[in-house]
């Protein structure tokens, strides 16, 4: 059963074709700048039930496979599947192991049979899905009764310093948009899955200058992918304006970049 189609998003979120291409290009550089991604994924692992021992798990949006390998070590007797929409990420992850299978797929149309997974783990991937209702529906379908869907995502307020600084320069869309936390609450409550944990936490990174931040976003493949973003090269005057505006946020540790992270642990009822 496979359905790897990539439909156009209904509104303000990026086209999944662009998401897949951007992260494929970033596969080689991703791990070198993935400090936040490792911290968030580790926090999500710690939120799993302590005595939980899934026989079959899915790393949804596995990226370079860092947490596929962590899941493989933690659940050594389990059978692991790593899935990502970006072929470049899978090509990077596959030789490093950690899962029994590495497959291309879309979180909104999982190429898995119903009631086949005890755990779906997804760290910093589902924020790129335009139809999160479908993500939850697919998780419900694929999980066995009593199975767990644990995800970390980004919500509104992420990179607000960069967004507000650009707004002072030209008012155009330069920063990725993310759902409000209240939307996650509403959709999870309506999903049929039981909520054990659903919370948001701010993670703040610091950079010596704006260029360091924008370089990292590009290396992660997470630079501006929104519809309505400006095309072509950004002029020197606008860059200088951005730098001047962002300097208003400077702290003793450097220029802050805030990520609003949603952590959720949901369970399919027995």
Can you describe what's shown?
This protein is of the alpha/beta class and 270 residues long. It has a domain of 188 residues: Rossmann fold (3-Layer(aba) Sandwich), CATH 3.40.50.150. The chain is 35% helix and 23% strand. It is built from ten helices and seven strands. It has a seven-stranded mixed sheet with strand order 3-2-1-4-5-7-6, with helices on both faces. β4, α6 and β5 form a beta-alpha-beta unit. The protein is globular. It catalyses: malonyl-[ACP] + S-adenosyl-L-methionine = malonyl-[ACP] methyl ester + S-adenosyl-L-homocysteine. Belongs to the methyltransferase superfamily. Pathway: Cofactor biosynthesis; biotin biosynthesis.
Task: List its salient traits.
single chain, Rossmann fold, 7-stranded mixed sheet, 7 strands, 35% helix, globular
The oligomeric state of the chains shown is single chain
CATH topology of the domain at 16-160 and 175-206 and 257-267: Rossmann fold
Question: What gyration radius follows from the Cα positions, in whole Å?
Answer: 19 Å
State the separation between the terminal residues, measured CA to CA: 25 Å
Provide a compact summary of the structure.
The protein has ten helices and seven strands. The protein has 270 residues and is an alpha/beta fold.
What's the topology here?
Elements lengths: L15 H10 L1 H4 L4 H12 L9 E5 L5 H9 L4 E6 L2 H7 L7 E4 L12 E7 L8 H11 E12 L5 H10 L11 H9 L4 E14 L2 H11 L15 H11 L8 E13 L3
Parallel strand pairs: 1-2, 1-4, 2-3, 4-5
Antiparallel strand pairs: 5-7, 6-7
GO biological process, one term: methylation
Pathway: Cofactor biosynthesis; biotin biosynthesis
GO molecular function, one term: S-adenosylmethionine-dependent methyltransferase activity
